[in-house]
Amino acid sequence: MDLPANAALILIDIQQGLDDPVYGKRCNLHAEENASLLLWAWRWTNRPIFHVQHSSTRPDSPLRPGQPGWDFKPDVAPHEGEPVLHKQVNNAFVGTDLEARLRGIGAETVVFVGLTTNHCVSTTVRMASDIGFRPIIVSDATAAHENELNGVMYSAEIVHNISLANLKGEFAQIATTETVWSAALSGNQRQRAGVIIIKDDAILLLHRFKNGAEYYTIPGGGVEPGETLEAAAIREAKEETGLDVTLGRELWRYGNRNVYFAVNAFRGELHLGGPERMRQSSTNRYQLEWVPLANLLSINAGPVAIKRKIIRMYARPK
């Protein structure tokens, strides 16, 4: 898959109100998690991101502004500076400046994730195609609810798949999270190995400040030619943190590119080293921090999927 540097990620209506039982059963219960993986990849590669939020005018709608359901789901909540467009109809191009924003950055490829496949996603994708964009729908980062016609209830899976089938080719390319994730990160072909270091209900992270933005990363880096994943993880841990680590099991892997290992034990004096120390400047700073596991989900620190797994494995009940 060819994914230009200015390919835009458009997240449609990933709002809490769409969990309301009034909508019925839903498919693709991991859609939000997959969307968060792509959101992380877009942030990591500095590609353009647009969040679309439905602002219903119906008094009884869970998506009406002011209702708890209007809020974005935490996994994909916008970061400061990321555009949020509010719409009142299914089509995200109507009543918003989405088209102008996309034209302004020269984006032709637009990647869609969100809710729901047969309503706002489908409507927006059709418009995007008709006005000259190249839409890509991520099939496992979108979802639909069950729907009824003439007394027959069609499952959420059928509604979702038929919606995608109707869009495929004529209006959009259909792809999976793994395919799009790999394309987004294709500028770095090397595998990366990282380490999860835990002490006293806190995780060791690199806190980076770059050109006014800040985020956290898990210690780790690229695998050198002829090096095993385990050897790379141990080397990177030593270079970046000064610690000698004993690896446990593989904790998380995605797309055969990013692999993280649990650390069973560590020793040594904590200090920043490696390329991170050499790159320090007034506009590019790194610092090692022990971040409480209780705060992990609320900070910008990689995909939600791995953060949740870390919390499940290591957080102790109070």
Describe the structure.
The protein has 318 residues and is α/β, with parallel strands linked by helices. It has 2 domains: 177 residues, Rossmann fold; 123 residues, Nucleoside Triphosphate Pyrophosphohydrolase, CATH 3.90.79. Helices cover 26% and strands 30% of the residues. The chain contains 8 helices and 16 strands. The protein has a 6-stranded parallel β-sheet, sandwiched between helices. A 4-stranded mixed β-sheet has the order 13-9-15-14. α1 runs parallel beside α5 and α3 runs parallel beside α4. The N and C termini lie far apart (46 Å). The mean pLDDT is 92.
How are the SSEs ordered, and which strands pair?
Layout: E1 8-12, H1 31-44, E2 49-54, E3 84-87, H2 98-104, E4 109-115, H3 117-130, E5 134-143, E6 147-149, E7 152-154, H4 156-167, E8 173-175, H5 177-184, E9 192-196, E10 198-199, E11 202-210, E12 213-217, E13 220-222, H6 229-241, E14 244-254, E15 258-267, H7 274-278, E16 284-292, H8 304-314
Parallel strand pairs: 1-2, 1-4, 2-3, 4-5, 5-8, 9-15
Antiparallel strand pairs: 6-7, 9-13, 10-11, 11-12, 11-16, 14-15
Helix pairs in contact: 1-5, 3-4
